[in-house]
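Notes from hallway chat w/ T.B., transcribed later so I don't forget. T.B. wanted the structure written out for a chain they're using in a teaching module, and asked if we could keep both sequence and structure tokens in one place. Agreed to drop them here.
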Amino acid sequence: MHQVLDIVKDFFFINLGMAIYSAGWALFLLPNHITTGGGAGLMAILQYATGFPMQYSLLILNSGLLLAAWWQLGAKFALKTLYAVLSLTFYLGLGQELITQTDGTLLNVLGENQEGMACILGAVLNGIGIGMVFMSGGCTGGWDIIAAIINKYKNISIGRVLLYLDLFVIGSCYFLFHSWQMVVFGYVTLVIYTFAVDTMINSSKQDIQFTIYTKESEKLVEIIRAKTGHTATLLYGEGAYTHDQMKVVVTIVHKSEQVEMLRLIRDTDPASFVTFHRVEGAFGLGFNTIKA
């Protein structure tokens, strides 16, 4: 029952996140011709240049990438991402349709010469929306899939891959608008968007150490291995009041796996006592490689 509720919850928040993300584009970024990084930014530039709706170009782009994600990153990740992409296509189309004026242009809800405010509001909504999707175990496709696959085989951070791609996309809008101001707006949008995402998911690039006091230590360790691919350390302890002997499970997982870990603990031993905290760096099998 818990697993069914978890799936429903994940897909609900993916849907809500895509609605909020699309609102940021439709209400603020697209009417002001502001771009940002990622596949969405690149497809927005294509829409500005040709008029071809970005939701359809994103759908085409992600069709091939989703096949690669299924093959390299697993069916669960790919299915959630597929749902996010389809939701994004629907909400982006609906949002633009609702604010399209009789002359075919998008209504600028903030009025003229409000590009600065538009990039702030659009970026905040984008970050909140994407943060919800990431926390639910999915992504919006595009650069995220490319970066995740590269990160699987190369010792380079996903953040660095995304940064290089984003700098290229935003800089390329100069050749369309011939305005450095629009390039600056794009970079400002990217910075605010990134900050909003990090705030939503509580710094996803950090890892989480769990300390679990449970009577089901052996069973929990096996489940952690099977479900996350991580292992754990068993510490031998004694209750100060009861003097009962116990084994304490200590494990470190990626930030994106925090919710999954809590669910695994809950389903294995609801009576367990759990603490967790962020760690600034984890090096070794399954994490980063030490470079000194």
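Follow-up for T.B.: The CA atoms of residues 107 and 247 lie 62 Å apart. Might be a good example for the class.
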